[in-house]
Amino acid sequence: MRVASIDVRLERRLAVWRGTALLVTSGSLLLALVVGGIFLKLTGHPPLDVYRELAKTAYFNWYGFTDTLGASTPLVLTGLAAAVGFKMNLYNIGAEGQLFLGGIASAWAGIAIVPGMPGPLAVLTVMFAGALGGAAWAFIPALTRAYFNTSEIVTTLMFNFIGLYLMQYLIQGSYSYWRDPKIVGFPQGKEIVDAARLPHWNFPADSMFGIAFPPGRTQVHLGLAFGVIAALGLWVLIERTRFGYGVRVTGDSPAAARYAGISIRGSIIVVMLISGALAGLAGAGIVAGQGYKLDPGGLAVALGYTGIVVAALARSNPFAVVVVAVLLGGLRTGADNMQSAPDNLKIPVAIAGMLEGAVLICALGGELFRTHRISVRRVPSNSDREEHLSGAVGVGVSP
Amino acid sequence: MSPGDLASALPMLRIRGVTKSFPGVVANDSVDLDIRRGEVHTLLGENGAGKSTLAAMLAGLYRPDSGTMVLDGKPVNFANPREAQSRGIGMVHQHFRLVERFTVAENIALGDTSQPWKLDTRALESDVQRIGEEFGLPVRPDARISDLSVGERQRVEIVKTLYRGAEVLLLDEPTAVLTPQEVDALFVTVRAMRESGKAVVFISHKLVEVMAISDVVTVLRAGKVTGTVQTRDTNQAELARLMVGREVELSSLRAMGVRGSALLSVSCVGLVASKRHVLRDISFDVHGGEIVGIAGVSGNGQRELAETIAGIRAPSTGSISVASQSVGGKGPRKTRAAGLSFVPEDRLGTGLAPSMSIAENLLLTRPRSLFISKRKVQAEAAQIIADYDVKAPGPDAVTSLLSGGNSQKVLLARELAASGDGATSNHVLVVASPTRGLDIGATESIRKRLDDLRQRGGAVLLISEDLEEVLALSDRVLVIYDGAMVYECDGASADRTTIGLAMAGAIATENSGHV
Amino acid sequence: MKRTAKIGAAALALTLGLAACGSDKEKVDAGGGDKTTTTAGEKPAGALKVAFVYIGPVGDGGWTDRHDKGREEMVAKLGDKVEVTVLENILDNAASEATFQKLARDGNKLIFATSFGYGDPMLKIAGDFPDTCFQWATGFKTADNLGTYFGAAEEARYLSGIAAAHASKNGKIGYVAAFPIPEVLRGINAFTLGARSVNPAATVQVVWTSTWFDPKVEKEAAESLLAEGVDLLAQHQDSTAVGEAAKEKGAKWVGYNDDQSKVAPEAWLTAPIWNWGGYYTKAAESVLGGKCDNSQYYGTMADGLVGLADFGSSVDQATKDHIEAVKKTILDGSFKPFTGPINDQSGKEILKKDEVAELGALLGTDYFVEGVIGEIPKQ
Questions:
Q1: Sign of dihedral through CA atoms A392, A394, A398, B5?
Q2: pLDDT in tens, A246-256
Q3: Domains in chain C: ranges and CATH
Q4: Per-residue pLDDT tens digits for B469-485
Q5: Domain-by-domain residue ranges, chain A?
Q6: Rounded to a whole number, what is the distance in Å from the CA of B107 to chain A's nearest CA?
């Protein structure tokens, strides 16, 4: 029997094996690297060497890795902000603006209310203010969604722009409370007090494990701990509490939630507030951990939007959010560092964006393979079948 | 022999030894089937017997692993539904594939590659009209799908299939969604198609209907053909045995329970939704030890009544009490706490959260607590799977992957668990269309459970559009029409004709509010 | 470019766009690299490692391009005495701290940071790297091993204002400006003084964009000014979008940073430009000599740091002569643009007749001179 064609089709998997998720995710990442590798090869860069250098500079190097963790810290929090919404099919696109408001609120707290407080209390107050600011910015979209069913995608997006303009106005457009009047050059925010600054982790000595460390603090600050604790807390909330259960039911089927007497409005509002608070914490972390002042240029770098990508790649699993955030943070750190790599490995900054895009597409494509499988089958050619069948049926009919 | 004679003598579609397996299941195992022109051929079988898989292969949705299909003497192996369609095989799915915002004509043109770039609406509409008249399928070509009833939508699907030149029509459980009247209308159409020389493949598990409409019945069980019989040579009992593999008893379960006090009291309940009076001044009681059935044509307020009693909607007027506690409008949680369980008509999506596991779904109607314990419900789920003979891999099985019967068992088990296990119960259970779409085995098991509750002294309110079911189970029958109770009678002495008239709104009792 | 086409055929649809733009950039990198950086192997071991951190991309046709030209000039002069690293598109926020740490750890002994926002992050870590010399363009704070550099663009702004007033028919001039900060206000004032030295009735209308580099926003701002009837546009922006807007409406254009005449030859008059090469060479030489210049350098036209771009074809000889004459007095120090009498917008006297503004006062400019239409947010 000749093979006339190969029949390839996608069939829904009847059962989804748990390990498939991990397998498919790692497969997608591998595929993304291959796609990126083809691109590198075609532009004249040795892919393996570039990847090795990228990994070395972002992960397998003390400074690179701490830089990566620093870059990942806000992404962990904005990733969680998006993920908690995804759990009930709420699309809070507003982490961006909520992060700005978190920054504004924490900077205010750091200037106005914490002076005089002992360190730990000052830090907690500043972070709490940030969470409150972010939650407040999510509150109106939450209300309109809960009571008027207004798309939260549109309202939170609009609030991003309002938040951005507000923040720019506070620093560049006016002599507000946040702006430092003593600086005559480019407008700058007032610095928060020392006690409110998130401590950075520094290498304990000039040498550790026999490795000599040049001086300088690392980019890892206490904000990372807030991120990891938030991930843990979010997991417990969603998977182990009655409230989280209600959120998951609502996300799965609002009709079932209504049937069970779960308050959909309440869930929407609380989830949006949690989401906003997490994004606000991200903003507070940047203010209290990095710039020590309200700096629009430091906050408005699309961390909120990237958080959506993080949550999508992590399939909204809080722990996976942490891992993915570190992965993407490393990609960015690595890509910046690659500019100072030896000439043959020097790659355009845009490649980080490209790799990020490839990872996202491959992961979303991979999701399809988690739920579907490809069936490949050889199909006998028509003439073969004709003979075979006329024998079997025993009747030849002319058309 | 002329080709014409040959065609009428030989099967139009000849299937030999077709096998199709999915991971872990052999859905069809060496199936043989002959479909002839001018014949209604029923594929009968319980859920999961392989009827739909077989039909899907005929329609080009799946390819057989092995075996042959010969259409008009030519072997076929469809790569996709379009190819099957071009060869004259069309399928009307159980779940309609219509775009709600489009008109009937637009839906019919949709995906039809023979349509010109710009729709010739007038020609299309006149074709639709013609097909409708020929086969008794009145549809307005310019009506929007969203404005049509379920029965009308089904007509559109059939017209669509005929419009594309189907000679073999596969109807997948077409009556599952229809009212008795709509079923009658559908049968007129099926007969018209038979008269015009088309072959109709009717997929069903309802014996009464099968006997009424088919010429030939092929019974499937666990993927295998257990028999092909001429309808005139068989009876329901034989078909049931072929289908289930043992004798079944589906006669009335009505054994007199001990009528207790009124556990559910609905008094003067009215409901206004979207400025429409959906329920009007409804009053009735359900006592312990009785099943009260509410019959009616779909869309006369049944869903709203059930939801109002269950606390999901607040009545605009009137009051509801469960075991003498007033619950009307206090929400599902309070109503449940008072002792009322509710099995909604839409089991997957309302009664159960589809992508959650059986175990997690048990938590849906549990009382509030701060944390949830997965371990405890895991054990309960395993118990339910065993007690109710639920076909599921385990407590972690996702409910959307269960068959209709199995998910209904899980739902009913959860709601009955609230009634307690004791010998007596003063629990109220509201069930809506509990056996719609279920196979005989599951139907039997679920009806037994309802009867059990009655025996234990519970009160059951059965709301169903399946009149047979209402009559088979109820001690008392109420008929709802246009949001009001228009008729009441004793279950044992119910007169089908009178009930039918009441369902159609032909009887308006003088005391329509108070039955 | 052929290679790009091949990628297009092979790669995913998504990567195609990126691939094309990536390879363009690569071309730029390679172009720069050929003339400047060389691999470590070709360098003598003792070459001074110098790093440049750019806020924008090389090829922006403005600010970053001029710095990159300066880098090339330095490399051409010092040859293999230096080994250069270039980082482009580095945001000038607190996160850039990690970038400067890494550059210092990698052994760069001289780091040029070309944006204001790099200052605080550098100041935070400069103390950890006493052997590294940090140079902060447009900055205002110094440290032991951190100096600043900038220049008197106002001199060239004044001259470009003269060109503008000669070219404008109705005396209504538009000015697209980034932020209301002293540097920008000073430039607008100098430009306006230059224009009104020709046409005392000329007005300069200002629109703020709140961005240094955003072609879309800059163009929209330019178009809004044109809609109000100005027939000439000037800018304190880093892209060439204002020129494109001017070209489309047939208006004239005074650019910034670089000779951008190619964008709109008809509209082009001239522009204040930056020549960083001299300073970069000097700073590198000083580090090679074991010294870090931590002063606040403020270059002038006389130093060559600031210049005026070549005139466009529409600038007539009389205008050129006029400008040349004034330029001579600036170069020889006999004329300062900010010489009284100067009144602010409200008519309040800022400088008395013949009074010359001090540099300190100029660096804190917080007012508009008479003739400017626009608002500065007040404290």
A1: negative
A2: 999 999 999 99
A3: 34-151+275-299 (3.40.50.2300), 153-274+306-373 (3.40.50.2300)
A4: 888 889 999 999 889 99
A5: 70-203+218-315
A6: 26
